[in-house]
Amino acid sequence: MIRTEDGRVVAREHGVAESFLSRARGMMFRRSFPKGEALVFEFGSERRVGIHMLFVAFSLDVVFLNEDGVVVSVRTLRPWIGYASERAATVVEFPAGAAEGVEEGDGLVIE
User: Fold this and answer.
1) Taking a C-beta distance cutoff of 8 angstroms, is the pair 49, 95 a contact?
2) What is the pTM of this model?
3) pLDDT tens digits, 23-45
4) 108, 102 Cβ separation under 8 angstroms
């Protein structure tokens, strides 16, 4: 489950992209991203992270978190052409619209 610090559930289920290949693939080549799900990319320490939408057929909400789990940026990326880059320790991808109301400075809890 992924929720805001005030208890609002943003995703009931989530996967973790742990390997180099799963991080590189992300949401590419998938046909859908079910509502209520998320994909988490954990990098261990803050670094410049780029997220592209090449071969992703649907929009995503992308939330960049610092080492303390605080949101540093929220972006909605369009299919095929979207790109975002930020300094982050963790990135969470949601179906478009799922991160509505999540803002910079908010805390996210990944359980």
Assistant:
1) no
2) 0.94
3) 888 888 888 899 999 999 999 99
4) yes
Domains of the chain: 2-110 (2.60.120.1140)
What phi and psi, each to the nearest 5 degrees, are found at residue 95?
-60, 145
What's the Cα-to-Cα distance from 79 to each of 26, 50, 54, 67, 82, rounded to whole Å?
Answer: 13, 15, 7, 28, 6
Report how far apart, in Å, the C-alpha atoms of 65 and of each of 80, 92, 101 are: 23, 8, 15
Integer Cα distance of 66 and 47 in angstroms: 9
Q: In three state form, how does the secondary structure of 7-75 look?
A: CCEEECEEEECCCHHHHHHCCCCCCCCCCCEEEEEEEEEEEEEEEECCCCCCCEEEEEECCCCEEEEEE
Question: Over the chain, what is the mean pLDDT?
Answer: 94
Structure tokens given for 95:
């179906």
CB 108 within 8 A of CB 65: yes
